[in-house]
């Protein structure tokens, strides 16, 4: 059993008979009254995110997990195929377990968190940034750069990202996977 002092980002716990991963947390010590920990929990079975407050010293049940590197092979409808980079064992995961499946390119290396007791996959951690090529975008209008104007662009995985006007088809861009936003243009 762990307590609220052991709470950290990425910790997997059992709460309300479900397995949750801590996405955000904040220790709060008000001037009056007892301390508490405000958390944002993501269900690893349904994907729902909920806010919860634990009082200081509250006991929480920790889930023992292991992180393994897997390579994304290919999608097949709502099923995604991955291969362990150590022993070449293949697994299939449902689209709902992934945070940003539309940014996943074939051959990409991801970290999959599995429960240690029964080897059940719990969540997929994408790399912080991915580099993808622009397959379609409208040309930017000249003189429309007074503000931070953006335009939609389709990348090679089919996702649509808002990019600055100077980005053209064939350019490679770096994308932040946490919020699916443009970071920078990548030079070859």
In short:
The chain has no helices and 16 strands. It has strands at residues 2-3, 12-15, 18-28, 36-43, 49-55, 59-62, 65-76, 79-84, 90-94, 109-115, 121-125, 129-137, 150-155, 160-164, 172-176, 181-186.
Provide keyphrases for this structure.
SH3 type barrels, mainly beta, OB fold (Dihydrolipoamide Acetyltransferase, E2P), six-stranded antiparallel β-sheet, five-stranded antiparallel β-sheet, flat, 16 strands
Explain what you see.
The chain is an all-beta fold. It has 3 domains: 2-62, SH3 type barrels; 65-125, Beta Barrel (OB fold (Dihydrolipoamide Acetyltransferase, E2P)), CATH 2.40.50; 129-186, Nucleic acid-binding proteins (OB fold (Dihydrolipoamide Acetyltransferase, E2P), Beta Barrel). Helix content is 0%, strand content 54%. It is built from no helices and 16 strands. The strands form 3 sheets. It has a 6-stranded antiparallel sheet with strand order 1-6-2-3-4-5, with no helix packed on it. Strands 9-8-7-10-11 form a 5-stranded antiparallel sheet, with no helix packed on it. Strands 14-13-12-15-16 form a 5-stranded antiparallel sheet, with no helix packed on it. A hairpin with a 5-residue loop joins strand 10 and strand 11. The mean pLDDT is 85. GO terms for molecular function: translation elongation factor activity. Keywords: Cytoplasm, Elongation factor, Protein biosynthesis. Pathway: Protein biosynthesis; polypeptide chain elongation. Residues 67-122 form the Translation elongation factor P/YeiP central domain.
């Amino acid at each position: 059993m762990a307590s609220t002092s052991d709470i950290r980002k990425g910790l997997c716990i059992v709460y309300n008979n479900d397995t949750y991963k801590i996405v955000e947390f904040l220790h709060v010590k008000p001037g009056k009254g007892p301390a508490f920990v405000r958390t944002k929990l993501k269900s690893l079975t349904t994907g729902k995110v909920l806010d919860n407050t634990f009082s200081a010293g509250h006991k929480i049940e920790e889930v023992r997990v292991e992180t393994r590197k897997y390579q994304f092979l290919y999608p097949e409808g709502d099923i995604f195929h991955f291969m362990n980079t150590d022993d070449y064992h293949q697994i299939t995961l449902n689209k709902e377990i992934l945070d940003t499946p539309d940014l996943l390119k074939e051959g990409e290396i991801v970290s999959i968190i599995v429960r240690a007791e029964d080897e059940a996959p719990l969540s997929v951690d994408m790399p912080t940034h991915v580099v993808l090529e622009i397959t379609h975008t409208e040309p930017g209008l000249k003189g429309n750069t007074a503000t931070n104007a953006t335009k939609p662009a389709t990348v090679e995985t089919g996702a649509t990202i808002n990019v600055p006007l100077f980005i053209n088809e064939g350019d490679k861009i770096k994308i932040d996977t946490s919020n699916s936003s443009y970071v920078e243009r990548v030079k070859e």
